[in-house]
Structure formats: structure tokens, C-alpha cells
């Protein structure tokens, strides 16, 4: 991957940054020169490395505000401050609304909306006094802007996350910029759980205008850009990283018999 910009001397946190999309973001930040700390409930099977450098890991349950606060306070003590936060941790099992009680759906909202809010509030206290301010990047989803059967609570949380980022961008300007990277489908080590074998992944990729799923490194590139000075005048924005989105179903229906 070509380095988009130089983030040397910057301190970055990537929540859920140990695998999948999160690991791609972590590697991109490492390659750009940042000091990167990842956090998740469980340690990774192997450290995340790139460009001869290794991300540091801390076990953190992002749903516990006191634990999150202590984590960022420790970072300030060890690194002197924080420049970049990427709120990547999240996800959901496939569950139709009628197939789970309100408490189960609420846990999805807690992980995908309230946890990023908790982390952002804690990070803001350590960013706002930095000479160059700070940058927060939310990892959103196209599920937040279209019907999401089987992941309705997740889609609702991602819609809320995007709106939250816009409000944060206004409240915390000019010291801290806040943006959202809105993802479509990304190919990770867990893609087979969602799309099946290689043939299934390829078939799903053909539904995307660019003809394939995104690579985690491409998500990382977008995050590095938004965290950098090249995006110094970008805040409250949503950057679509979805390969052109989804081909409208009516186009296929209209040509089905031709």
C-alpha cells in the first residue's frame, strides 16, 4: 500500500483493531508512521504489524465507561496525549427482529452506538488540549441508510452513529474533527461466514458496481486520509467507501427477460 501521508509522531487508537477491517486500519496507520494502540475484549491471536512496526494491545470492554476512561487516562500518561481515534469496534449476528427480544437488540445498539460515544467522550478530554487538536473517525455502514433485514438494530445504530458524528463535529470544532467512513461490503478472514466459499464471495462482489468487495487496506487508506492534515478542512462529513454502492434492483428486473 502506498502511504497516503505522514502521521509520524501521532498517537492513534483503533477500537476492535486486531482483526478484519480493524486490523486493516491499524496496518494503514502504522505504515503512515503513527504510534498505534488497539483495544478489544480479547487479545489477538498474533500482534498486528506493518512496515516493521507493531501495534500495542490493551484489553478493554468498550461498554464499561469507567474502564474506557481509565484506558485513555493511561494512554495520556504513557504517550503524552492522543491525536487519532478510530471507532471501529462493532458488529452484529444475523437476527430478524421477531427472532430476538428487545434486550438482545439493545446490546447491538450499545456496542455499535453507545460504545463509540463513550470512547469519543473519553478521547475528547485528551485531544482538545493537543497543539494540533485531534481527529475522530467513526466506522459506519451502508446498513445505516437502507433497509437492513436481519440486522435492523445494527442499521439503526449505524444511522445514529453517523448523526452523532455530525453533531460532535459542530460541538467540538475547531479543536477536534469528527468524520464517518461509511462502508459497504469488505472482504475479511470472516467473509466466508456471510458469503460462503470463493464462488459465493465472487458472486456477491459482482453485485457491487466496481465488481468486488473492498479490501481492509482500502478502508485503512480512507481513515489515514481523514486523520491527516490533508483533510484539515473536512469535518462532519461521511466518506462513502462502498465501491459505488448497490445496483438498483429495478434495473435487473427491467432487463430480466431481454
Could you explain how this protein is built, in words?
The termini are far apart. The strands form 2 sheets. This protein has a 7-stranded parallel sheet with strand order 5-2-1-6-7-8-9, with helices on both faces. Strands 3-4 form a two-stranded antiparallel ribbon. The model has no long low-confidence stretch (mean pLDDT 93). 40% of the residues lie in helices and 17% in strands. With 258 residues, it is α/β, with parallel strands linked by helices. The chain contains 8 helices and 9 strands.
* Unreliable segments of 5+ consecutive residues: none
The 3D shape can be described as globular
The helix/strand order is EHEEEEHEHEHEHHHEH
Q: Major sheet, described briefly? A: 7 strands, parallel
Amount of beta strand: 15-25%
| Overall pLDDT score | 93
Report the span from N to C terminus: 42 Å
- E-strand count: 9
Q: How many helices in DSSP terms?
A: 8
Structural class: alpha/beta
Kindly provide the radius of gyration, computed on alpha-carbon positions and rounded to a whole number of angstroms. Answer: 18 Å
- Give the strand line-up of the largest sheet: 5-2-1-6-7-8-9
What percent of the residues sit in helical stretches (DSSP H or I)?
Answer: 40-55%
Give a short summary of the structure.
The protein is 40% helix and 17% strand.
Amino acid at each position: 500500500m502506498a502511504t497516503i501521508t505522514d502521521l509520524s509522531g501521532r498517537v492513534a487508537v483503533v477500537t476492535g483493531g486486531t482483526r478484519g477491517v480493524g486490523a486493516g486500519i491499524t496496518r494503514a496507520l502504522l505504515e503512515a508512521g503513527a504510534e498505534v494502540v488497539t483495544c478489544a475484549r480479547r487479545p489477538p491471536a498474533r500482534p498486528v504489524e506493518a512496515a516493521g512496526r507493531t501495534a500495542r494491545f490493551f484489553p478493554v470492554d468498550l461498554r464499561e465507561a469507567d474502564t474506557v476512561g481509565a484506558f485513555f487516562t493511561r494512554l495520556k500518561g504513557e504517550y503524552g496525549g492522543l491525536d487519532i481515534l478510530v471507532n471501529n469496534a462493532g458488529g452484529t449476528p444475523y437476527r430478524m427482529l421477531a427472532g430476538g427480544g428487545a434486550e438482545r437488540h439493545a446490546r447491538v445498539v450499545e456496542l455499535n452506538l453507545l460504545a463509540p460515544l463513550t470512547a469519543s467522550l473519553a478521547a475528547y478530554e485528551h485531544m482538545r488540549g493537543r497543539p494540533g487538536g485531534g481527529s475522530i473517525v467513526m466506522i459506519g455502514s451502508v446498513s445505516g441508510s437502507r433497509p437492513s433485514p436481519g440486522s435492523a438494530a445494527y442499521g439503526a445504530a449505524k444511522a445514529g452513529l453517523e448523526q452523532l458524528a455530525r453533531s460532535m463535529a459542530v460541538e467540538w470544532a475547531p479543536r477536534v474533527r469528527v468524520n464517518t467512513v461509511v462502508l459497504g461490503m469488505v472482504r475479511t478472514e470472516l467473509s466466508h461466514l456471510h458469503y460462503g466459499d470463493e464462488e459465493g464471495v465472487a458472486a456477491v462482489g459482482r453485485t457491487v458496481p466496481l465488481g468486488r468487495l473492498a479490501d481492509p487496506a482500502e478502508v485503512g487508506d480512507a481513515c489515514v486520509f481523514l486523520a491527516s492534515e490533508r483533510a484539515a478542512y473536512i469535518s462532519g462529513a461521511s466518506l462513502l467507501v462502498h465501491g459505488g454502492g448497490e445496483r438498483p434492483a429495478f434495473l435487473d428486473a427491467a432487463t430480466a427477460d431481454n
